[in-house]
Amino acid sequence: MRTLLTDAAGARELDRRLITQIGVPGLSLMELAGRGVADVVARVAKRGERVIVLCGPGNNGGDGWVAARWLRALGVAVEVVVAMPPATPDCAAMARCAAQSGVPSAPWSGALPPGEWVVDALLGTGARSPLPREFAALVRAIGARPTVAVDLPTGVSADTGGVSDLAVTAAHTVTFGRFKLGMFAGEGRWRCGVLHRVDLGQEAVDPEGSLARAELGAADCPPVAVPRRPNSAHKRTSGHLLVVAGSVEMAGAAVLACRGALAAGAGLVTAWVPATALPRLGGLPPEVMVVFEPPDPARFSAIAAGPGLGRTPDAASWLQSPTRCPSVFDADALPFAGSGSGDQVITPHSGEAARMLGTTAATVDADRFASACALASGRTVVLKGPATLVASPGHLPWVNPTGGPALATGGSGDVLTGVIGALLARGLSPFDAARLGVWLHGAAADGLAASGSPEPTASQIADALPSTFARFR
Question: Is residue 426 helix, strand or coil?
C-alpha cells in the first residue's frame, strides 16, 4: 500500500469526511487516537515512571485527556497539566470523562510537576507561529525531558517542518491517519523522533489520494523493480552512458560518477574529460572509455553531466546545444539544465536550487516540497538533502526514506549522478530512474552505517553499490 502524506488542511478534511460522510462520531476518533498514544507511552516508559500529559484547549488536548485516562487504566502514574481550559465540545467531554475516571489534573502554574515522561498534547497540527505566550512557556518547561508528541510536536509546521521560534523536540511522535509533510522536511525531520501511526480509517474517504500532497517511499523495498539483464543481453543492451565530468582540480568527481554508473549496470561508459585532467585519472575503472574532444551525442543512450566539471569551456558550449537522449545534470552542469530536448533529471542541493530559483538556501529549506515542485517544470528534480525529494510533472512528490548522515561526504553526489545516468541509459523513465537511484544510493550508505562505518567515503559508497543492487534485485 502507498504511504501518502498530507498537510494540515488535508488532515482536517479527512477527519471532516469521516465524521460527515461515514458517520464516525468525532468522540470515537478521539478515543482511538488517545488510546493509540497511551499504547506507545506504555511501551516506551519504564515500569514506575511517571507521565505528565500537557493538554491544550482543542481536539489535540482532547486526545491527551483520552491518553491520560488509558494510561491510568494501564497502571501508569499520570497527571494532566491543563494549559488552557477545553475550548471544543469533544475536548471538554474527554476532560470530564478523565476526571470521572480519577485522572488527577491541575492548571499550568509556571512549573511542571515531577515526571520522567511528558506527553505533548498542546496544539498538534494546529500550531501557529509564533507560539502564544502560554504555550511557549510550557515548551520551555519541558526542557530535555523525553516527550511523546500527539500528532505533531508543538511548534512544528505540519506543512513545511519549519520552526519559527520554539518547538518541542520529541523522542516519539504518534500521528493519526496520514503522515504529515512536516515530518519529513526542515527541523520536523529530527524534532519528531521515532514516528508511529494510528490508523483511523481515513483512506476509506480518500481512496484515490486526492488529498495527498506527497508519497513516502518504503524503507525496506525499492520504489520500482531493480533492472535485471536478460539472458540474451550484450554490452549495448544496458545502454551507453556518456559522463561529462571532471577538471584538473576535481578529476576525482569523474571517477566517482563513472564508478556509480558501472555499479548501476550501464553496459558501456564513456567519460569526456579535459585532456589536462588525464594525469589525475589513475583511479578511473578500466572498463571506462575516455574521450577528450566533444563527442556526438547520438552515440549514447543517456548523458550524466556536471560532477567536478568546473569552468571547462568546451563542455559548457556543448551542454548548451540541444540533445535528444535522456540526461541527468548535476553541480556545474545545472546552469545549462533545460537546454536539451530530451528527458531530463536535475539533482541540486539546497544552495544550487536557490540559485536556480533566484532565492536563498534558507528559503528553499523553509518549504522543500514547494521548492522541488517549483523546479519540476517539464523535468524531474532530485532535491538532495535529509529526506531527499523527487518531484516530476504528473506525480506526487516522492520522499526518499534511505540515506542520512552517512551521505554527508564529498563526492557522494557524484556517485549518485552516475547511478541515475546509468538507470536512464538502461531505459527507466526519469522519474523512476531518479527514485530508484536515490533509494539504492541511500540504501548502500545505510548498509555501511549498519555494519560499523557510519562515516563512509564516497568511494566506499560506490564499492557498496553492487551488493546493494544485488540484494534488492
Answer: coil
Contacts of 235 (CB under 8 A, 6+ apart): 267, 268
Mutual angle of helices 458-472 and 251-263, in 10-degree steps? 10
All three cell numbers of 194, joined, read: 521515532
Distance CA 87, CA 297 (A): 66
Mark whether 50 and 131 lie in a shared domain: yes
Whether 234 is covered by a domain: the verdict is no
Q: Does 224 map to a domain? A: no
* Residue 228 within any structural domain of the chain: no
- For 51, half-sphere exposure in the C-beta direction (CA atoms, 13 angstrom radius) is 34
Residues 273 and 160 in one domain: no
3-state secondary structure 123-148: CHHHCCCCCCHHHHHHHHHHCCCCEE
Residues 267 and 368 in one domain: yes
Q: Do residues 304 and 328 touch, judged by C-beta distance below 8 A? A: yes
Rounded CA gap, 170 and 182, in Å? 14
Q: Hey, what's the cell of 137?
A: 512557556
Q: Where residue 318 sits, what CATH number does that domain have? A: 3.40.1190.20
Number of structural domains the chain divides into: 2
Q: What is the DSSP letter of 217?
A: P
Cell for 233?
A: 543481453
User: Rounded to whole angstroms, how far apart are CA atoms 282 and 279?
Assistant: 7
pLDDT tens for 125-153 read 987 778 888 899 999 999 999 999 999 99
Distance CA 233, CA 239 (A): 11
Q: What's the predicted TM-score (pTM) here?
A: 0.94
* Assigned domain for 330 exists: yes
Measured distance CA(461)–CA(190) in Å, rounded = 24
Sheet holding 147-150, edge to edge: 105-107, 78-82, 51-55, 117-121, 147-150, 172-176, 194-198
CB atoms within 10 A of CB 290: 18
Tell me the residue range of the domain where 206 lies. Answer: 3-213
What CATH number did the domain enclosing 85 receive? Answer: 3.40.50.10260
> CB atoms < 10 A from the CB of 294, how many?
13
Torsion sign across C-alpha atoms 315, 460, 300, 292: positive
Tens digits of residue pLDDT in 415-433: 999 999 999 999 999 999 9
Instruction: Give yes or no for a contact between 387 and 400, defined as CB atoms under 8 angstroms apart.
Output: yes
